[in-house]
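Try this one yourself first.
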């Protein structure tokens, strides 16, 4: 969250073509007898690049770019210099127009932060002989591409929001090792005039439609800011605009998920909305799916469509009023059809659970992994198998309160899609629940005693099979300082690989994180 800076997070691939051209009106290459450019050197953040690196340069936006020339001037040249840059192929959105050329320097050498976002650029140095106004050019072709990673949303002691970007090799981003790590203050470094006050969470729009796929929404308690997905530049906070939401009250989507066929879902003030990007070329079509008087949990999930059985319930929500799971059936929220499972008296009716939902996430195979609270205040882990589109079975039901008091109302959860387990965090400890063996094991217990875990996430990325459902992120705060820990774990058992722990610091108080890819 837009997104990715001392620290912005773009990868800049710079193919440098060197040549000296005298300005005679057609910019054709000619001999220059009174100017001899011997060489140039390129530095990124004061690190001199090799010839190979200079030919295929990788930068982050706002890295310090320095280009130094060694040249001999003879025959009485009195030089002045001009560095110019312009965009030649914008990639921000369909219909975008290139930026106008702008002057960025007037010195012999360039030494400044490179603050451009993704796109293709021409960077050139113009040397002018003040004696006769002849001009000589050295040109650099630059391609800037957006990079991805983990957006870490945070708040400082004054209530101002910002986000950093974390990139590690496990994320399969295709970047060299020296480009990995954390880049801080991504948003604030380029959007100082649009501060985020009292932030609450991030929301990324990913619809599969190029017209709408470029937004990060930085949500706050009273407002929201739309940020370009690739450039991280603030766009607007006008809910009447084409990319905003014609909903009553403040925009505060507490639940969000991708649907199918360019559909998107969100929950606003307990009501479920479907956003259809196919019915019109300009304005998305908003459909309220929930009936008046019904209140829905902020958690939603999507089950991949099963074409063999023509599954109808890909997009699943929970009706807190009727205490049942529902699915979107052609813009109608329908209750599931329950079938008696193998649990006997422990069976839970998916259409009438008689419990409140605390958390929901897609589990292993075609299943709903849920954490629920009964009327006696006891907490349960319940798994519903919905492989059969005509019958939903309660396959697992564990009374967590009977096992220990580690799982509480405010515990944070992350449910695996590859193994029969889930992680949960309470206070400053992380636990592993194996719901096949019905065991709870503490797995992270070295977090400082005065810290509070604020987020727990599993990396879920089907395009990255080596680490899909095999990386755990644990975020904790000590006062206004946030820390992010990354662990590898066995995707079948959930056991952490002890030597894999990586710790990242330098954050303000962390309140949310989301993977941008």
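Now uncover the answer:
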């Amino acid at each position: 969250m837009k997104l990715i800076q001392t620290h912005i997070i773009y990868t800049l691939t710079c193919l440098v073509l060197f040549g000296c051209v005298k300005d005679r009106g057609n910019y054709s290459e000619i001999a220059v007898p009174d100017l001899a450019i011997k060489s140039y050197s390129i530095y990124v953040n004061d690190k001199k690049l090799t010839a190979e690196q200079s030919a295929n340069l990788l930068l982050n936006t706002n890295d310090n770019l320095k280009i130094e020339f060694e040249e001999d001037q003879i025959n009485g040249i009195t030089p002045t210099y001009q560095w110019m840059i312009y965009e030649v192929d914008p990639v921000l959105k369909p219909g975008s127009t290139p930026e106008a050329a702008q002057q960025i320097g007037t010195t012999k050498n360039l030494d400044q932060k490179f603050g451009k976002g993704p796109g293709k650029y021409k960077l050139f140095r113009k040397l002018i002989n003040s004696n006769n106004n002849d001009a000589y050019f050295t040109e650099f072709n630059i391609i800037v591409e957006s990079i991805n990673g983990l957006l870490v949303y945070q708040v400082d002691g004054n209530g101002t929001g910002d986000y950093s970007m974390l990139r590690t090799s496990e994320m399969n981003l295709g970047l060299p090792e020296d480009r990995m790590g954390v880049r801080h203050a991504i948003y604030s470094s380029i959007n100082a005039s649009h501060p985020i006050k009292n932030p609450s969470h991030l929301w990324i729009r990913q619809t599969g439609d190029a017209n709408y796929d470029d937004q990060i929404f930085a949500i706050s308690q009273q407002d929201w800011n739309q940020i370009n997905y690739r450039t991280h530049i603030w766009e607007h906070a006008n809910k009447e605009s084409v990319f905003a939401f014609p909903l009553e009250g403040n925009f505060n989507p507490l639940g969000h998920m991708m649907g199918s066929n360019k559909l998107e879902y969100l929950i606003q003030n307990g009501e479920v909305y479907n956003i259809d990007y196919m019915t019109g070329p300009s304005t998305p079509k908003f459909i309220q799916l929930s009936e008046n008087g019904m209140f829905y949990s902020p958690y939603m999930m999507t089950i991949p469509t099963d074409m063999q059985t023509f599954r109808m319930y890909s997009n699943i929500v929970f009706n807190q009023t009727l205490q049942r799971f529902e699915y979107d059936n052609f813009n109608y929220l329908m209750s599931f059809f329950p079938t008696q499972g193998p649990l006997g008296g422990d069976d839970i009716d998916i259409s009438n659970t008689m419990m409140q939902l605390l958390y929901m996430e897609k589990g292993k195979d075609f299943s709903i992994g849920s954490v629920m609270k009964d009327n006696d205040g006891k907490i349960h882990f319940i798994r519903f198998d919905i492989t059969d589109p005509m019958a939903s079975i309660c396959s697992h039901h564990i009374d967590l309160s009977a096992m220990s008091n580690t799982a509480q109302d405010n515990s944070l959860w992350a449910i695996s899609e590859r193994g029969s387990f889930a992680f949960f965090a309470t206070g400053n400890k992380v636990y592993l629940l194996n719901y096949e063996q019905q065991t709870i094991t503490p797995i992270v217990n070295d977090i400082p005693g005065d810290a509070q875990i604020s987020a727990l996430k599993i990396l879920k990325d089907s395009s990255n099979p080596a680490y899909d459902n095999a990386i755990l992120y644990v975020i904790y705060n000590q006062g206004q300082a946030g820390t992010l820990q990354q662990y590898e774990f066995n995707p079948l058992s959930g056991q952490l690989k002890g030597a894999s722990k990586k710790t990242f610091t330098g954050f303000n108080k962390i309140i949310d994180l989301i993977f941008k890819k």
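Discussion: The first strand starts at residue 10 and ends at 15. Helices lie at 51-55, 400-403.
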